[in-house]
Amino acid sequence: MIWLLDAIATGTWQGLLMLLRIAAFIAPVLIALEWTRATGWLGRLTARLEPLCRRLDLPSELAPALTMGTVLGVILGSGVLLETTREHPVPRHQVTLLFVFVGIFHAMFEETVAIFAIGGNGLVMVLTRFAFAALAALLYRSWLVYRLRTVETAALAPRPARPR
């Protein structure tokens, strides 16, 4: 019985430490996000990614999350996404579409530098990851459009009479 209490205590402690580590990363990013908004840098950065947002059928409100996700990574991008969706509610399928792209094309600078440091070609890596991320996002978007058409067609189809 003591081993169970020890496991619960250890798990709780480790979970709290993990939350503190995540908060230590996300809090500075959110502070930096507010600073970039106040200074106008965020507008300039996201203006460059708005064409990509339009191409993926994402609202321009998700451009800051796309920026942070591609530059800093998935976890930090999700912190920005949470903040963005509080201010501007976005449909769930668009958030999923954003993370299909960011899940493949994330932490662009950090990982490119790491690959370059061990002798790899960073440009090839960035271009390949971008191409696969765009392809995956476009395939997911096409599937969403197909699913929407299927649901609409089924809703409009006449229903057969039920036997009595």
Q: What's the quick description here?
A:
By secondary structure, the protein is mainly α. It has helices at residues 2-39, 41-55, 63-72, 74-87, 92-104, 108-117, 122-156. It is extended.
Structure report:
This protein is an all-alpha fold and 164 residues long. It has one domain. The chain contains seven helices and no strands. Helix 5 packs antiparallel against helix 7 and helix 6 (108-117) packs antiparallel against helix 7. The N and C termini lie far apart (62 Å). The model has no long low-confidence stretch (mean pLDDT 83).
What are the low-pLDDT stretches, counting only 5+ consecutive residues below 50?
A: none
Strand content: under 5%
Kindly name the structural category. Answer: mainly alpha
Please compute the radius of gyration using only Cα atoms.
Answer: 21 Å
Distance between the termini: 62 Å
Gross morphology: extended
The biggest beta sheet is recorded as: none
Helix content: over 70%
Element-by-element helix/strand order: HHHHHHH
Quick one: how many beta strands? 0
> What's the pLDDT, averaged over the residues?
83
DSSP helix count? 7
Q: Return the domain count.
A: 1
SSE layout and pairing:
Layout lengths: L1 H38 L1 H15 L7 H10 L1 H14 L4 H13 L3 H10 L4 H35 L8
